[in-house]
Amino acid sequence: MHDEYRLAPERSTRDFIVLEVPDWVNVIAITEDKQVVFVRQFRHGVREVTLEVPGGMVDPGEDPATAALRELREETGYAGTKAELLGAVWPNPAFQNNLCHSFLVHDAVLAGEPQPDPSERIEVVTYPLADVPRLIADGQIMHTLVITAFSHFGIAGKSEYNQ
Asked: Which CATH superfamily is domain 21-158 in?
């Protein structure tokens, strides 16, 4: 989408490009033994394999919580019964119009084989929840929206995981 704005009456107009993007979801899925379900996948923008939580686009007309459970199952083979909203952010409000919703799935269980999109090559891995701060500090997790999801998790103060 192309927009034209005048930011102040005394200024001239300026062109802006806005990417109209579907909303996204990120899923922190934690197993009964406090393992976090992650995916490793190649990201074209950085030309690297990244460590991320499962996630993806919300389909038209789909509820974000439903999308979170669907993406978790498709990308990892893990399933849960409920996706709890932790928070949402604008990924890049300078030129995108979408939200990224972060969800928590308690007691995720391996329910079958992953069913990723044909263009995705995903490796499913788990790490103890207690290792996440180190994974971020060491630069093993560098995806901003994944770090944001864990920030929402921390802000939510999930005391059942602090034992």
From this structure: Nucleoside Triphosphate Pyrophosphohydrolase (3.90.79.10)
Q: How far is CA 68 from CA 57, 79, 91, 138, in A?
A: 9, 10, 17, 27
The residue ranges of every structural domain in the chain are 21-158
Tokens of 140: 């093993």
Are 59 and 137 a contacting pair, CB within 8 Å? no
- Evaluate if residue 127 carries a pLDDT over 80: yes
Give me the percent of the chain exceeding a pLDDT of 70. 93
Strand partners, 101: 25, 88
Residue with token string 């919300």: 58
Q: How many CA atoms lie within 13 A of 25 on its CB side?
A: 27
What's the CA gap between 140 and 85, in Å, rounded? 25
Q: What is the pTM assigned to this prediction?
A: 0.90
